[in-house]
Specification:
With about 280 residues, this protein is an alpha/beta fold. Helices cover about 35% and strands about 25% of the residues. Strands 5-4-3-6-7-10-9 form a seven-stranded mixed sheet, sandwiched between helices. The protein has a two-stranded antiparallel ribbon with strand order 1-2. It binds S-adenosylmethionine (SAM).
């Protein structure tokens, strides 16, 4: 198969797609790009990845599940930075991205040897319904065309099991430093930042129950009391990034009714709210 060509399985139907992604161009030095952008904080890219991984594991545990027993999908996994830290803590990890070059880099990392990587052309996810216990997308949605946000969240919801989790980590459009970094980032030229409120609306449209919303990365330093303070302030739109965690109801009828109503409200919200940079 040629470069950028991928074969994947949709149910029992094998499909071949040709794809290129703007992120192909950054696959070989993605981490260096980020290091240059966040260098002024005195923190490495790893620090920011680690903060999200720790937050994800702690939050899932606090929601009563055991990460080590979970099958997870890293949607928009890029070069597998998160996966390299997450692998020892979860049961089974899959990674999916539209950038074939990024997936190649992710695959080459020895820490990611057990991760099952795949590429797809966007749109429908190449997995059966109810496949995963959790699907997370870290700083991906702002690269997805705004008109596809609803479908993106609906697809994440489709592939998780009832009771499973959909997790977004996104840039906080209300944080001036975040906006400044995004404005200087070459691969964020297409970025349309979305607020935690918009993300919650998308979850409702997809029929998810919002379980947890938190703003994080308020301080670029570690330390017990700073972490406590950050946690105390997490409901305010202050941190550089935020997360919204939603859960797929075990019994779906009431959420389907809510979803139809939420869909109408969401269309209205997407028309009025613009956080583009
Ligand atoms: C800023 S990078 C983040 C990569 C990774 N999640 C991380 O935190 O290091 C955004 C990634 O989203 C991917 N992406 C964009 N649109 C996508 C889509 N519709 N489905 C899956 N991945 C997508 C890009 O190819 C890119 O690898």
């Amino acid at each position: 198969m040629g470069q950028g060509s991928v074969q994947f399985q949709m149910g029992w139907i094998p499909m071949v797609a040709q794809m290129t992604s703007e992120f192909d161009a950054y696959a070989s030095d993605y981490r260096e790009h980020i290091e240059r952008l966040v260098g002024f904080t005195g923190r490495s890219h790893r620090y920011f990845v680690e903060t999200k991984v720790n937050h994800l594991l702690e939050t899932l545990t606090s929601l009563g599940v055991v990460p080590k027993q979970m099958r997870m999908l890293d949607l928009g996994c890029g070069t597998g930075e998160t996966d390299a830290l997450l692998v020892p803590h979860v049961g089974e990890l899959h990674g999916l991205d539209i950038s074939a070059a990024s997936i190649e880099v992710a695959r080459q990392r020895p820490e990611n040897a057990s991760v099952r990587y795949a590429t797809y052309p966007g749109g429908q996810l190449p997995y059966e319904n109810d496949t995963f216990d959790a699907v997370f997308a870290i700083t991906v949605l702002h690269h997805v065309p705004r008109g596809d946000w609803t479908q993106f969240c609906q697809e994440m919801t489709r592939v998780i099991k009832p009771g499973g989790f959909v997790i977004l980590y996104e840039h906080n459009p209300f944080n001036p430093l975040t906006r400044w970094i995004v404005s200087r980032c070459e691969f964020d030229r297409d970025a349309v930042l979305l607020s935690a409120r918009t993300a919650q609306g998308l979850y409702q449209t997809a029929g998810l129950c919002v379980e947890h919303v938190a703003h994080l990365l308020l301080f670029p330093w570690q330390g017990t009391w700073l972490r406590r303070l950050e946690r105390a302030l997490q409901s305010l739109s202050l941190g550089a990034q935020y997360t919204v965690i939603g859960r797929k109801p075990v019994f779906g009828n009431e959420s389907r009714t809510a979803s139809v109503q939420a869909q109408a409200e969401m269309s209205e919200l997407l028309n009025v709210e613009s956080c583009g940079t």
